[in-house]
């Protein structure tokens, strides 16, 4: 037994979860304890005595760890905590919870005779829609804010900000063109006959040799099948000029290329690029609008196990590295409609994925390379993260903007307490 291991607490624990260098115990009396592999205590979270809605740990409760959060089930409800320090992120009261499990990027909780599915967003306890949206913005969870906005106010041109600045600062993946990239494993669910892929991109430089942004397949040896499969996005090798164009490629027996018109995308500007393929036609969109389409029939060839999903370079890791920023990569194993692509664009650079659209991968790239859909997280080979200013698409294109504000207490996830903020509501035409 490792030195420092809390022997006296083991008999009172209900369950244990392990993730990376963390081992987390849930204690009957109302605590979570995280240990290092050597047995030393890394942090302790104790249930507050007031308000006393947590209750005690269930008899067979076991914490669940996913990404950066620890989920714990109590007799009074469900709590989420930072994995690194145990700080409370949120608590949801539940009547008679009996167990929980993590599967396919969702947390499932058994409550009475029902099962409740939670995604990556959970609004603060007892919060109004306005307060929840502002809280998510305050804590840089802009995709969650957009998801709540789309549900609560589906037809309104407005945005909610915590503070008085009408532009969010978002965290995105930064690629410097010097052998730095992200690579994730070959995921079976992404091997679909039809696909839709969407991501936000800001190109800082062009490449004389061309470069791939997002890659799940290859076109080498086509029509031989060994390296002829999948789909990818790239910048053509037209040299360091504005004549380079972005292309979306789908591969079955041969390669189908769909090009964005020249000069439709320039350097140092954010764009949302989307490619869809429905078995009959490949279409490429920029900022929610169709730019070009090419007819092609037949299914996409499945990507073999030795070809991975890459960001910032191609499958071959051949020296053609991307320079710029990428955010919010979403992959669906079906063809999105033009209306659905427009919806994605309106949700913004960190917008949540579409519901019930067969999502199979979601990489927000807002500080990590985790997959928040099916947990096929990427390996980071030197890619950094940076903050950039950003305004919602509708607001940036508006001709008339109005603003009102109200003072609200909002929960700061990092501080673990409520802070009073001026919440601004911007509407536009």
Tally of strands: 29
User: What's the overall average pLDDT, rounded?
Assistant: 78
Percent strand: 35-45%
Flag low-confidence runs.
1-11
The backbone outline, from C-alpha atoms, is globular
Q: Based on the coordinates given, report the CATH architecture of the largest domain.
A: Sandwich
Q: Describe the main β-sheet briefly.
A: 8 strands, antiparallel
N-end to C-end Cα span:
66 Å
Number of helices: 4
Describe this structure as you would to a colleague.
- By secondary structure, this protein is mainly beta.
- The longest helix is centred in the middle third of the chain and has 11 residues, at 142-152.
- 8% of the residues lie in helices and 44% in strands.
- The chain contains 4 helices and 29 strands.
- The model is unreliable at 1-11 (pLDDT under 50).
- The protein folds into 3 domains: 7-118, Beta Barrel (Lipocalin), CATH 2.40.128; 129-167 and 394-428, no CATH class; 171-390, Sandwich (Jelly Rolls), CATH 2.60.120.
- The radius of gyration is 23 Å and the shape is globular.
- Strands 13, 15, 20, 21, 22, 24, 25 and 27 form an 8-stranded antiparallel β-sheet that branches. It has a 7-stranded antiparallel β-sheet with strand order 19-18-17-16-23-14-26, with no helix packed on it.
